[in-house]
Amino acid sequence: MKKYLQIIKDTWAEYMMYRLNFVLWRVRMVMQILVVYFLWWAIFSQKQEFFGYTQSMILTYILLSSIVRTLVLGTTTMDIGDVINKGDLSNFLLRPFHFFHYYIARDIGDKLLNFTFAVVEITVLYFFLRPPIFIQTNIVTLLFFLAAIIIGTILYFFFSLIFGFLGFWTPDVWAPRFLSFVIMEFFAGALFPLDILPKPIFFISQLLPFSYFLYFPLKVYLRQLPIEMLLQGFAISIAWIIGLMVCAQVLWQKGLKVYTAEGR
Amino acid sequence: MQRYLRVYRKLCEMSLETLMAYRANFINSMGSSFAWGIFSFISIFLLTSKTTSVYGWKREEIILLTCAYSIMIGVFHTLFSRNFERMAEIINFAQLDTFLVKPMDSQFLLSMRWVNYTASTRVLLGIGFLFYFRRIIAIELNPLAIALFFVLLFFGLLLLYSIWFIVATFLIWSPRLSNLIELMYSVSGMTRFPGEMYKNASEYLFLFLLPITLIITTPIKFLVARASLFDVLSLLFFAAVLFVISRKLWKFALRYYTSASS
């Protein structure tokens, strides 16, 4: 356990080494939230309700999504393709811990730091903008919300890991990852709740893993899912976790067999 | 001038050859660029589907704005953004030396060295949607209006380039600030919405973002005959002034380039 705590501390130290760079990253995040926030503010300037959402619900969705995304989508696993291609994976294979565990510890460090900053940013924005947000007080709903975030986090970890493992077979890891990122951003519901999409597209989005990264936890928080949809969401997302976990393990084992430590 | 055109043609050819060497990467990048563009359009259609107008902008005009944004940002990413992405690395590893010793303008070489052909998908997508929606948008277009629209788009592009270059110049003083360029992608994204959206949110924010909000909204306002002389002159003024500033600042910054590690 001690070694993993050290990895978390190292991750923080790494980020703090380039403090201004990290701050700029956070500024970028705040700008993205503000643009989406102002967009929705503009839409609600003339309407009381939009696709069944009130202004309060939507603004809560947007602001909370920026916090949830630091926990679910914050990851350091995007380096893995480069680690493999540059032969740096050899260093990890010699160390007394599993490669997966190393990245889990690093991700925890990344998520905690970004989460702390996001909470501070949203608090500051709240005091400046005074949006009519919805505060969930039901403990059971909050526990379900927490569970949905944990599931989304695990799901995204394996999803991202799989894209990193492409590095075993190709040096072009960036492009497929970017393509997946583009699709994910849309189907995760970062810009708008997915249930405003046309019904067939919304149905498909429910079967994909992406909607469990942001949309599902946020809908759980807003308590807008009937119990059967809630259970269905948890069932599908857990099935995806099992599928992606097995896929990541298989790719890891097969990848190690073809790994040539190129560049070493 | 001719020498620069000849060199640029050669640089374009070299970028194309590099692209062809990594075909899978090329196809994936085209796919990403295409998907990104399509999702932007879907988002704007959905978000405006229940609205007839927002802050004086009709739904059709907002769609037109999205088309123009797609064209403009596509051209910008094709010609410039990859060069800015590499600037941090070039300065940090003192590769800038190789640019400075060449008998050409360093700003030209640094900001136009690589061409990202895959981003041109966004241009094609923008033009495609523009043609597809021309009936819905229902705007009277004459050749002169179209020609002037493209002239204003050019100045918008110049303004966007100048803002990026001014910001990127600060990498000379702090080469490790690679997120500065990432930040600029978000800044560019802000141009896709009408300036009035920011104005209604905060007057201070609007004033701060004024040059950015002019980039695409002014050509579109011109096209739908809503642009005032002030809008047009503001765009021309900011484009010219910021371009001159970008040149002066670059020359000034080069005095502080240490060429460390070369």
Task: Describe, in plain words, how this protein is organized in 3D.
The complex is a heterodimer of chains A (264) and B (262). Chain A is mainly α and 264 residues long. Chain A has one domain (2-258). Chain A contains eleven helices and two strands. Chain A has helices at 2-17, 19-43, 55-72, 80-85, 89-94, 99-129, 139-165, 174-187, 199-207, 215-222, 227-258, and strands at residues 49-50, 53-54. In chain A, β1 (49-50) and β2 (53-54) form a beta hairpin. With 262 residues, chain B is an all-alpha fold. Chain B has one domain. Chain B is built from twelve helices and two strands. A two-stranded antiparallel sheet of chain B has the order 1-2. Chain B starts with a helix and ends in an 8-residue tail after the last helix. The A-B interface holds A 18, 20-22, 24-25, 27-28, 31-32, 35, 38-39, 41-43, 45-47, 50-51, 170, 172, 174-176, 178-179, 181-183, 185-186, 191-192, 196-197 and B 22, 24-25, 28-29, 31-32, 35-36, 39, 42-43, 46-47, 50-51, 53-55, 174, 176-180, 182-183, 185-187, 189-190, 193, 197-198, 200-201.
Indicate how many domains the architecture of chain B comprises: 1
Termini separation of chain A comes to: 31 Å
Give me the secondary-structure category of chain A.
mainly alpha
Total helical elements of chain A = 11
- Number of contiguous helices of chain B: 12
Sheet of most strands of chain A: 2 strands, antiparallel
Number of strands of chain B: 2
**Approximately what portion of the residues of chain B adopt beta-strand conformation?**
under 5%
SSE run of chain B: HHEEHHHHHHHHHH
| Uncertain residue ranges of chain A | none
**Physical arrangement of strands within the biggest beta sheet of chain B:** 1-2
Kindly state the mean pLDDT of chain A as a whole number? 90
Integer tally of domains of chain A? 1
Query: Biggest interface: chains and residue counts?
Result: A-B, 37 and 37 residues
Rg of chain B, nearest Å: 19 Å
Amino- and carboxy-terminal Cα gap of chain B: 31 Å
Report the principal-axis shape of chain B. Answer: globular
